[in-house]
Amino acid sequence: MACQDNGVACMSSGEGLAGERPLRADARRNIEKVMEAAAEAFARDGLDVPLEDIARSAGVRAGTIYNRFGGREGLLDAVVADVAAGWLRAVIDRATGQGTAWGRFTAFVEGMCEEQAADPVFNDVFSRRYPDAPDLRAVCDQSLAFGAELIRDAQSCGTLRPGFSAGDLARIFSVNAYLVRDRPAGDDGWRRTLQFTLDGLRAQPDSTSE
């Protein structure tokens, strides 16, 4: 069973990794310590934190991370993927609560971009900085699949310009990831860029019906 600590997931101490025989108690403790240390380090320093620092905080050798998780991508999948899926679900829930196809589309885009600006870990995950982490990649694919549904709905209602695609949506998120990364405190220029983008995408900016 998975639990959560410091905003990222951690494995309960009684579990081994999939496909492995039951682990000794000391090995289980080492896995738990690594995941707890990784959760804290990722939340504090971002997903690029050196694995050696995580190992040092956990009181284990760096080789333990490679032996048990295969490297950074495996550790990210174990610690971050479930939480990233929860973040995405929250954005989707807010978007689906809107009453129009255009409202759902813009709420989703704005929600994703706002979370990118608010949380560097969210930004790293959904800008696909770690494509070799399969569980994280699956969450990113889910976000674009949902976005594609919203695009089709808004285009069928005539409120989103034809020709816009899920690939274009991914590029919006990529541009926003760059704009919000390492920006000065209080700099919300990304909001202006996003608003201009959405204004340009609306096929019927003066219409209130769908």
From TrEMBL:
Pfam family, one: TetR_C_43
Molecular-function annotations in GO: DNA-binding transcription factor activity; transcription cis-regulatory region binding
Organism of origin: Actinacidiphila oryziradicis
Ranges of the DNA-binding region feature: 50-69
Assigned keywords, A-Z: DNA-binding, Transcription, Transcription regulation
Domain HTH tetR-type: 28-87
UniProt name for this protein: TetR/AcrR family transcriptional regulator
PROSITE patterns cross-referenced by the UniProt entry: HTH_TETR_2
